[in-house]
Amino acid sequence: MKPAVAAENLVNTNAFTVQDVINLVLKEGALTPISNTVDTIKSGHAGQQVTGIVTTMFPTIAVIEEAVKRNANFIIAHEPSFYNHRDEVNLVKNNTVLEKKIQLLEKHQIAIWRFHDYCHSINPDIISYGVAKKAGWLSYYKAKSTVLTIPKVSLKQLVQHLKTSLGISNLRIIGDPEQMCERVALLPGAAGGQYQINIASSEKPDVLIAGEVSEWETAEYIRDSRLLGGNMALIILGHAVSEEPGMEWFAEWLQPKLPAVKITHVASGNPFTWM
Predict the structure, then answer these.
(1) Residue 243 annotated as binding?
(2) Are 21 and 118 in contact (CB under 8 A)?
(3) Terminal CA-to-CA distance of the chain, rounded, Å?
(4) Are residues 89 and 44 in the same domain?
(5) Is the pLDDT of residue 208 over 80?
(6) Single pTM value for the model
(7) Would the pLDDT of 93 be above 60?
(8) CA distances, 107 to each of 64, 69, 73, 75, 262 (Å)
(9) 145 plus 224 within the same structural domain
């Protein structure tokens, strides 16, 4: 196995391993090791030499095939590779889809590292910063705060802005399209019902913007809140598309730190088609 290159010397070499890159991300992000993290290597080996890097949300079959076309053998993904939080490959017996995916990764010697816990630990949070950046809201963004105060717009106008800026074709909402929104709680991804409801209750934003919700939790809370006379709205972006701008920003964040390697963001996209 090739010895790891010290992170501070990595920019001066064209030869580095998967572990070298991981070490660099941790160093440049001022991150300390997280115990029991899901951010582990899911495919390939720590010692393999990197030919190129692709960042993405979900390392789908299409993303893997695109990485191969780009001669990139290292995928840094925000979410799981194998359909469960800890990427347990034996969670479902005789899972032929999972088996074929592993075979594809092995055939092309693709390494995958999940970048989730560390991604949200960097200051500012890579995901929320990337979403705010793509939405044109950086002037309203505050690190470690979920609430942004934006120029007052109607819910309908806000929905159109998010569709246009984030490249999302369809959104789901609870609320009056004509109601005015100014205080926005931005919660991309799947923060969970307890956290989403806690933010809604404590911060009392005009609108809660979530990646995904458990429909029997946050959506019902918002519905009952409105039936009791409240005016809080809910916008659901979709999990993958809500956090994708963060991994796109991560590619921009990492590229100057690794000038010798090509780093590309490949969007995994929305898995749903609206009919």
Answers:
(1) yes
(2) no
(3) 51
(4) yes
(5) yes
(6) 0.93
(7) yes
(8) 11, 14, 11, 15, 22
(9) yes
What integer best gives the mean pLDDT of the chain? 94
Please compute the mean of the pLDDT values over residues 208-224 and round it to a whole number: 97
- Asked if 120 and 250 count as a contact pair (C-beta separation under 8 A), the reply is no
CATH number for position 175: 3.40.1390.30
Regarding whether 42 and 24 lie in a shared domain, the answer is yes
Q: Which residues pair with 183 in a beta bridge?
A: 149
109/149 Cα distance (integer angstroms): 46
Is residue 116 within 8 A of residue 39, CB to CB? The reply is yes
Cα 246 versus chain centre, distance: 5
The encoded tokens of residue 87 equal 């990427």
Q: Are residues 13 and 118 in the same domain?
A: yes
Residue 78 annotated as part of some ligand binding site = yes
Check whether 167 has a pLDDT greater than 60.
Answer: yes
Considering only residues 187 and 7, tell me which one the structure prediction assigns the higher pLDDT.
187
pLDDT at 14: 62
Say how far apart CA 185 and CA 157 lie, in whole Å: 16
